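Figure 6 in text form: structure in, sequence out.
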């Protein structure tokens, strides 16, 4: 599923990542020169090392590997509780639409999930028995987690709180507690500090569509699969919250202090960091680390249900079946629409343009122009692209460009915005064709043709 999900067009943020690394001259400059929040360090290193290949699915190879590895790690983590929990965890992660989507995309989200799970696996062993090997594995994995994406901080903060809680409850004493904390957390903290001074404090924020705090509750719904329809989000979110509370209750009942970590990584830390970040631009993917641990927590619930006789087994099977249906629905959409049919759209424009120059305007200069320029060389054949930005409406050709592209975010209704539209210069266009994207990635494109060119 992850390979199939990777065999489609690169979308804006992936193209943006490719273009960010093109001017740099060495691998070190990934950390010291780009200074942009779309620079996910390990992903950028891969893009830099592999070179420019246009619309190439090979850019997504590390994400695919990390995504498959996350399934294995989910099983290993839950296996410590029971075999049933291990199988449920692997099934939940394997068939999660969100995990499939971001583990088939050339960005750092799949890697950060993988290293968060690996770090948890190492930390759990370290908290039970403070060995050098488990501390080293946790430290290395955490450093690679931060290098994958800075949202690893969601995991790391929860891990620090959990470690401190465990050691304070133990009888190690103050000196040994400090030593144990430093052995596991000092190196990742030092790495993050260096990152802050060489890059993070200089970072520019790419921006996006304002979404507000409600997107956090939406992430619970998407972790379950988010049934189609806007009215399904709230009840699905509430069901996901209920399952999460049940998982935390199971941990508390069993006197496991892991509830401290799961509460932190799923609830407390993401909300706190979002408040500190103080931005109205939030996406479901920003909570993907917590969503991965939601799946682990739910595997505990499903395993507990299986131990309650036939009623519990039937309930777990029904919950899992609904999960497969909802996530499968979106996964099939990903296989069908990918992250947008941009190459096909550009070829459509070239084929239906009689002149050698394909003149285009759009409703968003940055988002649409970058994608058009990326695909123009290989998709326009003998034609040439002439993009006319809205910021220079006075330089537009008389009567306007021949084509106009409108776009919508992936979570918006994919229906065309209308049958006709008018640009800023008063030129009228007629709707011709739409190119849809799967949920949570890419944008919908709507092609309009200048009525004066009919």
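Output sequence:
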């Amino acid at each position: 599923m992850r390979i199939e999900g990777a065999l489609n067009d690169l979308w804006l943020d992936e193209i943006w990542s490719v273009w960010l690394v093109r001017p740099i001259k060495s691998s070190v400059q990934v950390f010291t020169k780009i200074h942009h929040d779309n620079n996910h360090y390990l992903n950028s290193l891969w893009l830099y090392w592999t070179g420019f290949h246009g619309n190439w699915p090979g850019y997504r190879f590390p994400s695919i590997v990390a995504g498959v590895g996350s399934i294995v790690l989910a099983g290993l983590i839950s296996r410590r509780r029971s075999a049933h929990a291990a199988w449920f965890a692997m099934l939940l992660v394997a068939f999660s639409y969100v995990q499939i989507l971001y583990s088939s995309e050339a960005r750092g989200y799949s890697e950060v999930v993988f290293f968060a799970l690996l770090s948890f696996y190492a930390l759990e062993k370290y908290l039970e028995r403070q060995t050098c090997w488990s501390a080293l594995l946790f430290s290395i994995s955490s450093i690679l987690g931060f290098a994958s994406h800075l949202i690893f901080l969601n995991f790391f903060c929860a891990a620090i709180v959990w470690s401190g809680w465990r050691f304070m409850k133990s009888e190690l004493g103050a000196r040994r507690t400090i030593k144990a904390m430093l052995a596991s957390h000092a190196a990742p903290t030092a790495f993050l500090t260096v990152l802050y001074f060489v890059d993070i404090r200089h970072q520019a924020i790419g921006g996006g569509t304002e979404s507000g705090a409600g997107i956090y509750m939406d992430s619970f719904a998407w972790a379950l699969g988010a049934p189609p329809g806007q009215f399904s989000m709230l009840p699905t979110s509430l069901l996901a919250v209920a399952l999460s509370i049940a998982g935390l209750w199971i941990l508390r009942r069993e006197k496991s202090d892991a509830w401290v970590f799961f509460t932190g990584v799923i609830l407390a830390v993401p909300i706190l960091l979002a408040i500190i970040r103080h931005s109205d631009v939030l996406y479901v993917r920003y909570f993907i680390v917590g969503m991965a641990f939601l799946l682990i927590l739910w595997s505990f619930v499903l395993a507990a249900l299986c131990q309650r006789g036939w009623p519990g087994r039937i309930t777990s099977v029904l919950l899992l079946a609904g999960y497969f249906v909802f996530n499968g629905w979106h996964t099939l959409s990903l296989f069908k629409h990918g992250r947008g049919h941009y190459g096909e759209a550009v070829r459509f424009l070239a084929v239906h343009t009689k002149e050698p120059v394909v003149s285009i305007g759009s409703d968003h200069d940055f988002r649409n122009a970058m994608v058009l320029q990326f695909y123009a060389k290989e998709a326009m054949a003998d034609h040439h692209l002439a993009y006319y930005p809205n910021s220079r409406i006075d330089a537009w050709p008389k009567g306007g460009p021949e084509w106009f592209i409108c776009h919508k975010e992936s979570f918006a209704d994919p229906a065309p915005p209308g049958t006709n539209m008018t640009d800023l210069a008063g030129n009228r266009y007629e709707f011709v064709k739409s190119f849809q994207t799967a949920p949570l990635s890419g944008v919908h494109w709507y092609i309009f043709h200048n009525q004066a060119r009919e």
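Caption detail: The beta strands are 357-362, 384-387, 403-409, 420-422, 428-435, 443-450.
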